[in-house]
Amino acid sequence: MAPAKHVAEVPCCGPLVEHALDEADAVALAAVFAALGDPVRLRILSIIASQDETCSCNLEGPLAKSQPTISHHTAKLAAAGLISGERRGRWMWWRVVPEQLAALQACLAVVDPSRTVDPSGLDGVGPLEPAQGDG
Amino acid sequence: MAPAKHVAEVPCCGPLVEHALDEADAVALAAVFAALGDPVRLRILSIIASQDETCSCNLEGPLAKSQPTISHHTAKLAAAGLISGERRGRWMWWRVVPEQLAALQACLAVVDPSRTVDPSGLDGVGPLEPAQGDG
DNA sequence: CCTTTACATTGATGATCGTCGATGGTCATT
DNA sequence: AATGACCATCGACGATCATCAATGTAAAGG
Protein backbone atom coordinates (compact mmCIF):
# COMPACT_ATOMS: atom_id res chain seq x y z
CA MET A 1 0.00 0.00 0.00
CA ALA A 2 1.18 3.48 -0.64
CA PRO A 3 2.74 5.04 2.43
CA ALA A 4 1.38 8.34 1.23
CA LYS A 5 -1.15 8.46 3.98
CA HIS A 6 -2.34 11.87 4.82
CA VAL A 7 0.02 13.37 7.30
CA ALA A 8 -1.61 15.65 9.77
CA GLU A 9 -0.35 19.17 9.75
CA VAL A 10 -0.23 21.56 12.61
CA PRO A 11 -2.27 24.47 11.37
CA CYS A 12 -1.63 26.68 14.32
CA CYS A 13 1.82 27.97 13.69
CA GLY A 14 1.41 30.50 16.46
CA PRO A 15 0.25 30.29 20.01
CA LEU A 16 -3.38 29.46 20.34
CA VAL A 17 -3.83 32.28 22.77
CA GLU A 18 -3.65 34.81 19.98
CA HIS A 19 -7.11 34.21 18.68
CA ALA A 20 -9.87 31.68 18.83
CA LEU A 21 -9.15 28.59 16.79
CA ASP A 22 -11.12 27.94 13.67
CA GLU A 23 -13.07 24.72 13.62
CA ALA A 24 -11.05 23.18 10.79
CA ASP A 25 -7.81 24.13 12.45
CA ALA A 26 -9.04 22.77 15.74
CA VAL A 27 -9.85 19.44 14.13
CA ALA A 28 -6.43 19.17 12.54
CA LEU A 29 -4.62 20.23 15.66
CA ALA A 30 -6.70 17.94 17.85
CA ALA A 31 -5.76 15.02 15.65
CA VAL A 32 -2.11 15.61 16.42
CA PHE A 33 -2.74 15.95 20.12
CA ALA A 34 -4.95 12.89 20.07
CA ALA A 35 -2.00 10.97 18.70
CA LEU A 36 -0.18 11.90 21.86
CA GLY A 37 -3.13 11.02 24.05
CA ASP A 38 -2.23 7.39 24.44
CA PRO A 39 0.34 6.04 26.88
CA VAL A 40 1.65 3.46 24.45
CA ARG A 41 2.17 6.00 21.71
CA LEU A 42 3.76 8.38 24.15
CA ARG A 43 6.22 5.74 25.19
CA ILE A 44 6.88 4.83 21.59
CA LEU A 45 7.62 8.44 20.80
CA SER A 46 9.78 8.68 23.86
CA ILE A 47 11.79 5.64 22.92
CA ILE A 48 12.21 6.82 19.37
CA ALA A 49 13.13 10.32 20.46
CA SER A 50 15.66 9.08 22.97
CA GLN A 51 17.61 7.46 20.17
CA ASP A 52 18.58 8.55 16.74
CA GLU A 53 16.63 5.81 15.09
CA THR A 54 14.61 2.95 16.45
CA CYS A 55 13.60 -0.32 14.89
CA SER A 56 10.05 -1.52 15.30
CA CYS A 57 11.34 -4.78 16.65
CA ASN A 58 12.81 -2.84 19.58
CA LEU A 59 9.41 -1.51 20.59
CA GLU A 60 7.46 -4.67 21.22
CA GLY A 61 9.69 -5.78 24.02
CA PRO A 62 9.70 -2.75 26.31
CA LEU A 63 6.04 -1.99 25.69
CA ALA A 64 4.80 -5.54 26.08
CA LYS A 65 2.43 -5.16 23.18
CA SER A 66 1.80 -7.36 20.22
CA GLN A 67 3.29 -6.58 16.87
CA PRO A 68 0.05 -5.43 15.19
CA THR A 69 -0.58 -3.08 18.07
CA ILE A 70 2.85 -1.53 17.75
CA SER A 71 2.39 -1.20 14.02
CA HIS A 72 -0.97 0.40 14.55
CA HIS A 73 0.45 2.98 16.95
CA THR A 74 3.46 3.79 14.84
CA ALA A 75 1.15 4.31 11.90
CA LYS A 76 -0.90 6.71 13.97
CA LEU A 77 2.14 8.64 15.07
CA ALA A 78 3.32 8.78 11.48
CA ALA A 79 -0.10 9.96 10.31
CA ALA A 80 0.15 12.72 12.87
CA GLY A 81 3.47 13.73 11.41
CA LEU A 82 5.26 13.13 14.67
CA ILE A 83 7.52 10.37 13.42
CA SER A 84 8.70 9.31 10.01
CA GLY A 85 9.58 5.78 9.04
CA GLU A 86 12.25 4.46 6.80
CA ARG A 87 12.61 0.92 5.62
CA ARG A 88 16.05 -0.57 5.85
CA GLY A 89 16.08 -4.13 4.69
CA ARG A 90 13.48 -6.03 6.63
CA TRP A 91 13.24 -3.65 9.50
CA MET A 92 11.35 -0.44 9.81
CA TRP A 93 13.30 2.39 11.37
CA TRP A 94 11.49 5.29 12.96
CA ARG A 95 12.68 8.71 13.84
CA VAL A 96 11.01 11.77 15.24
CA VAL A 97 10.07 14.84 13.24
CA PRO A 98 11.42 17.69 15.35
CA GLU A 99 9.57 20.29 13.33
CA GLN A 100 6.22 18.86 14.25
CA LEU A 101 7.10 18.81 17.91
CA ALA A 102 8.34 22.36 17.62
CA ALA A 103 5.07 23.35 16.01
CA LEU A 104 3.15 21.87 18.89
CA GLN A 105 5.34 23.77 21.26
CA ALA A 106 4.45 26.97 19.48
CA CYS A 107 0.78 26.19 19.86
CA LEU A 108 1.19 25.68 23.56
CA ALA A 109 2.97 28.97 24.01
CA VAL A 110 1.39 30.85 26.82
CA VAL A 111 0.65 34.52 26.62
CA ASP A 112 3.77 36.61 26.70
CA PRO A 113 4.35 39.08 29.53
CA SER A 114 3.76 42.01 27.22
CA ARG A 115 0.16 41.05 27.00
CA THR A 116 -2.27 42.57 29.42
CA VAL A 117 -2.32 39.81 31.94
CA ASP A 118 -2.17 40.46 35.60
CA PRO A 119 1.58 40.33 36.18
CA SER A 120 1.16 39.29 39.78
CA GLY A 121 -0.17 35.99 38.65
CA LEU A 122 2.55 35.33 36.14
CA ASP A 123 5.36 36.59 38.26
CA GLY A 124 5.79 33.35 40.08
CA VAL A 125 5.28 31.18 37.07
CA GLY A 126 8.23 28.91 36.93
CA PRO A 127 8.33 25.24 37.66
CA LEU A 128 5.28 23.20 38.36
CA GLU A 129 3.70 24.23 41.57
CA PRO A 130 2.32 21.24 43.41
CA ALA A 131 -1.11 22.79 43.56
CA GLN A 132 -3.00 19.58 43.74
CA GLY A 133 -5.98 19.93 45.98
CA ASP A 134 -7.04 16.39 46.56
CA GLY A 135 -7.22 16.42 50.27
CA MET B 1 -17.71 18.01 45.19
CA ALA B 2 -16.17 19.24 42.03
CA PRO B 3 -12.84 20.33 43.51
CA ALA B 4 -12.30 16.84 44.84
CA LYS B 5 -11.54 15.70 41.33
CA HIS B 6 -8.00 14.68 40.81
CA VAL B 7 -6.14 17.22 38.78
CA ALA B 8 -3.75 15.66 36.37
CA GLU B 9 -0.18 16.70 36.73
CA VAL B 10 2.47 16.64 34.09
CA PRO B 11 5.01 14.19 35.41
CA CYS B 12 7.52 14.81 32.71
CA CYS B 13 9.12 18.05 33.70
CA GLY B 14 11.85 17.57 31.16
CA PRO B 15 11.87 16.72 27.50
CA LEU B 16 10.69 13.23 26.78
CA VAL B 17 13.68 12.68 24.55
CA GLU B 18 15.94 12.37 27.55
CA HIS B 19 14.90 8.87 28.45
CA ALA B 20 12.12 6.43 27.85
CA LEU B 21 8.95 7.29 29.66
CA ASP B 22 7.81 5.17 32.53
CA GLU B 23 4.42 3.58 32.15
CA ALA B 24 2.83 5.51 35.00
CA ASP B 25 4.25 8.76 33.74
CA ALA B 26 3.09 7.96 30.25
CA VAL B 27 -0.44 7.38 31.50
CA ALA B 28 -0.51 10.67 33.36
CA LEU B 29 0.99 12.59 30.51
CA ALA B 30 -1.26 10.96 27.97
CA ALA B 31 -4.28 12.03 29.99
CA VAL B 32 -3.26 15.65 29.60
CA PHE B 33 -2.65 15.29 25.90
CA ALA B 34 -5.90 13.43 25.50
CA ALA B 35 -7.64 16.44 26.97
CA LEU B 36 -6.22 18.42 24.08
CA GLY B 37 -7.20 15.78 21.57
CA ASP B 38 -10.66 17.09 20.97
CA PRO B 39 -11.52 19.98 18.67
CA VAL B 40 -14.16 21.36 20.98
CA ARG B 41 -11.85 21.37 23.98
CA LEU B 42 -9.10 22.87 21.90
CA ARG B 43 -11.37 25.70 20.88
CA ILE B 44 -12.54 26.15 24.43
CA LEU B 45 -8.96 26.42 25.58
CA SER B 46 -8.21 28.80 22.77
CA ILE B 47 -11.11 31.06 23.63
CA ILE B 48 -10.22 31.04 27.29
CA ALA B 49 -6.57 31.65 26.57
CA SER B 50 -7.29 34.51 24.23
CA GLN B 51 -8.94 36.39 27.04
CA ASP B 52 -8.08 36.97 30.61
CA GLU B 53 -11.15 35.19 31.87
CA THR B 54 -14.06 33.63 30.09
CA CYS B 55 -17.54 32.85 31.30
CA SER B 56 -19.03 29.51 30.42
CA CYS B 57 -21.99 31.27 28.93
CA ASN B 58 -19.65 32.74 26.34
CA LEU B 59 -18.62 29.32 25.12
CA GLU B 60 -21.90 27.77 24.09
CA GLY B 61 -22.51 30.35 21.42
CA PRO B 62 -19.30 30.18 19.39
CA LEU B 63 -19.00 26.43 19.72
CA ALA B 64 -22.63 25.65 18.95
CA LYS B 65 -22.77 23.00 21.62
CA SER B 66 -25.29 22.36 24.31
CA GLN B 67 -24.67 23.50 27.83
CA PRO B 68 -24.01 20.04 29.29
CA THR B 69 -21.49 19.37 26.58
CA ILE B 70 -19.62 22.56 27.35
CA SER B 71 -19.70 21.75 31.03
CA HIS B 72 -18.39 18.30 30.31
CA HIS B 73 -15.49 19.62 28.30
CA THR B 74 -14.55 22.34 30.73
CA ALA B 75 -14.54 19.74 33.48
CA LYS B 76 -12.18 17.62 31.44
CA LEU B 77 -9.85 20.50 30.79
CA ALA B 78 -9.92 21.36 34.47
CA ALA B 79 -9.22 17.76 35.41
CA ALA B 80 -6.23 17.89 33.12
CA GLY B 81 -5.01 20.95 34.96
CA LEU B 82 -5.14 23.07 31.84
CA ILE B 83 -7.74 25.50 33.07
CA SER B 84 -8.99 26.50 36.46
CA GLY B 85 -12.47 27.72 37.22
CA GLU B 86 -13.68 30.28 39.66
CA ARG B 87 -17.24 30.94 40.57
CA ARG B 88 -18.32 34.56 40.66
CA GLY B 89 -21.92 34.84 41.54
CA ARG B 90 -23.91 32.79 39.13
CA TRP B 91 -21.28 32.66 36.47
CA MET B 92 -18.33 30.38 36.17
CA TRP B 93 -15.14 32.06 35.05
CA TRP B 94 -12.37 30.03 33.53
CA ARG B 95 -8.76 30.89 33.00
CA VAL B 96 -5.80 28.98 31.71
CA VAL B 97 -3.07 27.52 33.88
CA PRO B 98 0.11 28.75 32.22
CA GLU B 99 2.26 26.43 34.29
CA GLN B 100 0.60 23.37 32.85
CA LEU B 101 1.01 24.59 29.30
CA ALA B 102 4.62 25.39 30.03
CA ALA B 103 5.12 21.91 31.41
CA LEU B 104 3.70 20.41 28.24
CA GLN B 105 6.03 22.58 26.25
CA ALA B 106 8.93 21.20 28.20
CA CYS B 107 7.83 17.66 27.41
CA LEU B 108 7.67 18.46 23.73
CA ALA B 109 11.12 19.92 23.71
CA VAL B 110 12.96 18.40 20.84
CA VAL B 111 16.54 17.45 21.00
CA ASP B 112 18.80 20.46 20.89
CA PRO B 113 20.67 21.28 17.66
CA SER B 114 23.87 19.92 19.15
CA ARG B 115 22.44 16.47 18.79
CA THR B 116 22.89 14.62 15.59
CA VAL B 117 19.76 15.26 13.60
CA ASP B 118 20.23 14.80 9.93
CA PRO B 119 18.60 17.78 8.24
CA SER B 120 18.72 16.19 4.79
CA GLY B 121 15.93 13.82 5.57
CA LEU B 122 13.81 16.55 7.06
CA ASP B 123 14.21 18.92 4.20
CA GLY B 124 11.16 17.80 2.34
CA VAL B 125 9.01 16.95 5.28
CA GLY B 126 8.60 20.44 6.59
CA PRO B 127 4.94 21.11 7.01
CA LEU B 128 5.83 24.32 8.73
CA GLU B 129 6.42 27.19 6.43
CA PRO B 130 8.58 29.76 8.13
CA ALA B 131 6.74 32.41 6.20
CA GLN B 132 4.11 32.90 8.80
CA GLY B 133 4.04 36.51 9.81
CA ASP B 134 0.58 36.35 11.27
CA GLY B 135 0.34 40.02 11.74
C1' DC C 1 -40.26 31.66 50.33
C1' DC C 2 -40.59 31.46 45.56
C1' DT C 3 -39.08 32.38 40.85
C1' DT C 4 -35.43 32.94 37.62
C1' DT C 5 -30.86 32.11 35.91
C1' DA C 6 -26.79 29.36 35.28
C1' DC C 7 -23.81 25.41 35.96
C1' DA C 8 -23.24 20.40 37.26
C1' DT C 9 -24.80 15.66 37.10
C1' DT C 10 -27.23 11.46 35.41
C1' DG C 11 -28.72 8.24 31.90
C1' DA C 12 -28.71 6.80 27.30
C1' DT C 13 -26.96 6.32 22.60
C1' DG C 14 -24.02 6.33 18.60
C1' DA C 15 -19.25 6.68 17.36
C1' DT C 16 -14.47 6.09 17.95
C1' DC C 17 -10.50 3.81 19.86
C1' DG C 18 -7.25 0.23 21.63
C1' DT C 19 -6.19 -4.41 21.38
C1' DC C 20 -5.49 -8.88 19.47
C1' DG C 21 -5.77 -12.93 16.12
C1' DA C 22 -5.35 -14.03 11.45
C1' DT C 23 -3.84 -13.05 6.76
C1' DG C 24 -1.01 -11.24 2.99
C1' DG C 25 3.07 -8.99 1.12
C1' DT C 26 8.09 -8.05 0.96
C1' DC C 27 12.88 -9.07 1.70
C1' DA C 28 16.90 -12.02 2.85
C1' DT C 29 18.74 -16.61 3.02
C1' DT C 30 19.41 -21.26 1.23
C1' DA D 1 12.15 -21.57 -6.25
C1' DA D 2 11.41 -22.65 -1.41
C1' DT D 3 11.71 -21.20 3.25
C1' DG D 4 11.75 -18.17 7.11
C1' DA D 5 11.56 -13.48 9.19
C1' DC D 6 9.33 -9.24 9.50
C1' DC D 7 5.85 -5.62 8.82
C1' DA D 8 1.17 -3.83 7.21
C1' DT D 9 -3.68 -4.62 6.87
C1' DC D 10 -8.33 -6.63 7.94
C1' DG D 11 -11.95 -8.14 11.00
C1' DA D 12 -13.75 -8.31 15.48
C1' DC D 13 -14.53 -7.43 20.33
C1' DG D 14 -14.64 -4.70 24.52
C1' DA D 15 -13.97 -0.19 26.40
C1' DT D 16 -14.05 4.62 26.34
C1' DC D 17 -15.77 8.92 24.62
C1' DA D 18 -18.76 12.75 22.80
C1' DT D 19 -23.21 14.29 22.66
C1' DC D 20 -27.81 15.44 24.04
C1' DA D 21 -32.37 15.37 26.91
C1' DA D 22 -33.80 15.59 31.42
C1' DT D 23 -33.00 16.62 36.14
C1' DG D 24 -30.65 18.45 40.24
C1' DT D 25 -28.17 22.16 42.72
C1' DA D 26 -26.53 26.76 43.92
C1' DA D 27 -26.91 31.82 43.62
C1' DA D 28 -29.44 36.41 42.73
C1' DG D 29 -33.77 39.10 42.98
C1' DG D 30 -38.65 40.29 44.42
Describe this structure in words.
The structure is a homodimer of 135-residue chains. Chain A is mainly alpha-helical and 135 residues long. The first copy, chain A, has a domain of 87 residues: Arc Repressor Mutant, subunit A (Orthogonal Bundle). In chain A, 45% of the residues lie in helices and 10% in strands. Chain A is built from six helices and three strands; from the N terminus they run ααβααββαα. A three-stranded antiparallel sheet of chain A has the order 1-3-2. In chain A, a hairpin with a 2-residue loop joins β2 and β3. Chain A is elongated. Chain A starts with 22 loop residues before the first helix and ends in a 12-residue tail after the last helix. The N terminus and C terminus of chain A are likely disordered. At the A-B interface, α1, α2 and α5 of A face α1, α2 and α5 of B. Chain B binds a DNA duplex (30 and 30 nucleotides) through α4.
Query: What is the rounded distance between the termini of chain A?
Result: 53 Å
* Gross CATH architecture of the domain at 23-109 in chain A: Orthogonal Bundle
Largest interface: A-B, 68 and 63 residues
DSSP helix count of chain A?
6
Count of DSSP E strands of chain A?
3
Strand content of chain A: 5-15%
| CATH topology name of the domain at 23-109 in chain A | Arc Repressor Mutant, subunit A
Q: Provide the gyration radius of chain A in Å.
A: 18 Å
The biggest sheet of chain A amounts to:
3 strands, antiparallel
Strand order of the largest sheet of chain A: 1-3-2
- Which structural category fits the helices and strands of chain A? mainly alpha
